[in-house]
Amino acid sequence: MLEPAELRNKFNVNRPTREQLLGYLLDALDEHERSEIERRLVEDEECRVELKCLKAALEPLEALRDEDCDPPFDLAERTSALVFEHADAVAAAAPQLARAGVGGPMPPVAGRWSMADMVVAIGVCAVAALLFFPVISNSRYAAHVTACQNNLRQIGYAVADYSDKVGGGFFPGASSRGNRAFAGIYAPILVEGGYLTDPRVVICPSSHLLQRRAVFRLPTLDEIDLASSTQIVALQDRAGGTYGYSLGAVVDGRYEPPRNLGRNYFALMSDRPLLYGEPVVNAPHWGRGLNLLYEDGHVAFGEAQLEYADQDDPFRNRRGLVEAGVDENDAVIGQSVASPFRFISQGIRPAQD
Description:
alpha+beta, 2 domains, 5-stranded antiparallel sheet, 9 helices, 7 strands, elongated
């Protein structure tokens, strides 16, 4: 006499449907349903084989886990249209195939999928993509934002250490003229002074430069000092990595690097700020926002299109220019290549370089 388990297998009693197996793979079942499926998988080898086939069919989705983009907005519509297009074509051809003697049922062949199977698989892939893409994208986005904040904190510790030990209360900053007159000079100063041990932290994880992070190299101060007029722009662009840095300020008619006053409102660094008129697609973190490092060491994330009607704009001085602030409370962050002065104002005395 057959045992109960053998009887269930023989007569296909309570065997999980394909939809239930898909729900099991996608973790879409409740605890009771999941336990029942797992029990049936232990007893029924055919169920295990079918589950293995379904899992193999969904494997192409795994290759998309490392993608940093959202799914096309019309993915579901285009997938549905494709399925219906092929379904209509098969239905239209069925009478001709039947008359030709090739439309009858096919004997079961291991590993062969019917048209209905393909329609189900395509539909499942489309639904899974719509579910997984936003989750994966948002997860990677949040991870990049957090890693970027950690980078800025490390740099914040380094500039604070510099100000205490050799800066006389000032952070490292640009010169008012010459080859060192650019915002990104802070990084070579910190690295050569031993305040920043890993120069790769100047690269934001969401930057295109991340692909070259392993071979990224900051220019040395000597390279910058000795660079010709045709070489200096490329060195200045690379020196600050993918972050923007304070351009200093004019205090009592004299240009100074940023002073360390421990202010919680004074923005010292940020993700690479966009040039005015530059498309948002060039922005870090896929244009969703920027991390800003403040003078007291805390980091905050802000939306990409910020309004500063009632506060200091960290990317322009009070004259609306991307250059040194008009006083020590006027924070201005520029890209690595930005100079403290687009136009040296009459009467401004540069700091002693």
